[in-house]
Amino acid sequence: MRIALTQISPEAGVSFGLSGSVLELVRDQLNALRKNIPHFAKIFGEEDYKIVFIITATRKLDSLSVKGPNILKRHKSAEFSLWIPYKSLDFSDRVAYILPQISSGIIEIFRRYKADEHGIASVVQQAVEIALKRPEKYDQIKQ
């Protein structure tokens, strides 16, 4: 199983503006865990599939909301949307707020499908620490 992270902004003027380098950092940390969700391995008939987490900022919610999956059998992928309540924050606060929200959403999905979530929270926390130590590398999008 491979994990992918992307972000969309369906509400005008509402975006977290996470840089691709932050998303790549989190993705690489998560993929290093070599996790699997047996439910999706069964659906796709193999363990080489992708889980896509779409990060979306919204003013309409007060807490994290996880939607999905949208199954794309042809592409061997399952997409989940992580709707995170929007807050306008500077880089440090944004990373410290959004990445744990992403972690919580991913853990929720692993629990939903009774898959091993061990290590997810800690590698995402490591990503927070890495990004905060090197803002010149990871804060490539200014709000």
Question: How would you describe the overall organization of this protein?
Answer:
With 143 residues, the chain is α/β, with parallel strands linked by helices. It has one domain. It contains 5 helices and 4 strands; from the N terminus they run E-H-H-E-E-E-H-H-H. Strands 1-2-4-3 form a 4-stranded mixed sheet.
Please give a quick description of this structure.
It contains five helices and four strands. With 143 residues, the chain is of the alpha/beta class.
Overall average residue pLDDT: 95
Give the proportion of residues in helices: 40-55%
Shape: globular
**H/E element order:** EHHEEEHHH
Q: How would you name the oligomeric state of the polypeptide chains in this document?
A: single chain
The strand order across the widest sheet is 1-2-4-3
The structure class reads alpha/beta
Largest sheet: 4 strands, mixed
> What number of domains?
1
Q: What Rg do the Cα atoms give?
A: 15 Å
State the total count of DSSP E strands.
Answer: 4
How far is it from the N-terminal to the C-terminal residue, by CA?
33 Å
Number of helices: 5
Ranges with pLDDT <50 over ≥5 residues? none
Percent strand equals 15-25%
Please outline the helices and strands:
Layout: E1 2-8, H1 20-31, H2 38-44, E2 50-58, E3 65-72, E4 77-85, H3 91-112, H4 120-133, H5 135-138
Parallel strand pairs: 1-2, 2-4
Antiparallel strand pairs: 3-4
Helix pairs in contact: 1-4, 3-4
